[in-house]
Write a structure and sequence with these properties.
The chain is of the alpha/beta class. It contains two helices and eight strands; from the N terminus they run ββαββββαββ. The protein starts with a strand and ends in a 23-residue tail after the last strand.
Length: about 120
């Protein structure tokens, strides 16, 4: 799972296996080990109707409604967006980059903009 933060915007990108895991387990997390303590970012299923977010104890938790998760795993829908206070939330499927990159993209979704 990747996270991108810019000002008041938080975006999570998930690979195919991460989206599948979210559908089965209802949660997925990643950790960045900083010198003093870990930074954790998670996506969790919720019964709420809207995307929401929390930041507690160095942990960002985006909460995604179960109905959105079911739609996400069973369709070609790319993602969902929402708002939590001043923070814009975006959750997307991670596509293969069109340009060359050294990053392992074997589990990313096929990029719909790639021409064969």
């Amino acid at each position: 799972m990747k996270i991108r933060i810019k000002d008041n915007s938080v975006r999570f990108r998930l690979t195919q296996s991460e989206v599948a895991k979210l559908g089965v387990d209802g949660t997925i997390s990643s950790v960045t080990e900083f010198v003093n303590r870990p930074f954790i970012y998670s996506l969790e299923q919720t019964e709420n109707k809207e995307l929401s977010a929390e930041f507690i104890d160095n942990r960002i938790v985006l909460k995604m409604p179960e109905t959105m998760i079911k739609e996400w795993i069973s369709t070609d829908r790319v993602g969902f967006e929402g708002q939590a206070g001043n923070i814009k939330l975006l959750i997307e499927k991670d596509f293969v980059c069109i340009d060359n990159t050294l990053e392992d993209q074997s589990d990313n979704y096929p990029n719909p903009n790639m021409k064969c």
